[in-house]
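1st attempt posting a full record on here, be nice pls
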Amino acid sequence: MAVIKYVVCLAEKKYIPMKIITRMIEDELYEASNKYGNKVMVDMRDHGSKQSQSPVEMVLSALAACGAIDIVVMLKKRRKQIMDFHIETEASRNAEPPRWLTAIHCKYIMTSPDVTEEELDKVARLSIDKYCSVAASLKSDITLSVQVIRP
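the predicted structure (as tokens):
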């Protein structure tokens, strides 16, 4: 029986290459690791068996974390104190497969003695519009390619 590996890669031009190795654990459970050995589980099982996030949930989590890191860095440069910070990210998806994301809304909730709502709004928009790599990727035209390898 032939084993077919599917490799999806981004077209490399003058950009920094990245590589993730994703391995099947079960039919709907995968482990993805980067070049440093950091791993995440990707879980498409039913909610009763599910222990990790689905790929689309991971995209939303990545967007929230990417934006949050930018926001905290910008506010810390202004010597602001952050007592608590969390992000509620909601999305809408197309009803029919492939069920792509059609809209994403990030709600930034911060407890701080010296960060105003206006200041948080300004740095949040700056993060999403200018600095967050995940947001920029979601807004860009990404070239996807597929290569099939039979070991």
